[in-house]
Specification:
The chain is an all-alpha fold and 104 residues long. It has a domain of 70 residues. It is rod-shaped, with a radius of gyration of 36 Å.
Length: 104
């Protein structure tokens, strides 16, 4: 008779242990995924870092372009004349200036 009681008792204990292990695994998975230092937070930071690096590269390229333009404005008189004429809309004698205005 003790064998009959031990069988269901063992099965109940095994189910209880399985349930505890499953709950512990779920809690651990939730912590790994959702805490502030977890996988999802880390992934968001990686994406933000990539976007920041792209913005930095873009601004570095703009800086290089502006530095080149400033260098040419101080050393290249033809470039300076061209830029002044473009910006101020000046022309040489016998030239016709045509300005295009965007429609409203």
């Amino acid at each position: 008779m003790s064998l009959a009681v031990a069988g269901p008792e063992k099965a109940r204990r095994g189910r209880y242990i399985s349930l505890v292990v499953a709950v512990l695994l779920l809690v651990t998975a939730a912590l790994v995924l959702f805490n502030r230092n977890g996988f999802l937070a880390n992934r968001r930071l990686q994406i933000e870092m990539q976007e920041t690096e792209r913005e930095l590269e873009s601004r570095a390229a703009l800086l290089d372009s502006l530095e080149e333009c400033a260098r040419r404005l101080t050393t290249d008189s033809l470039f300076m004349e061209t830029r002044v004429r473009e910006v101020l809309g000046w022309g040489r004698p016998d030239e016709h200036i045509v300005r295009f205005v965007a429609p409203e």
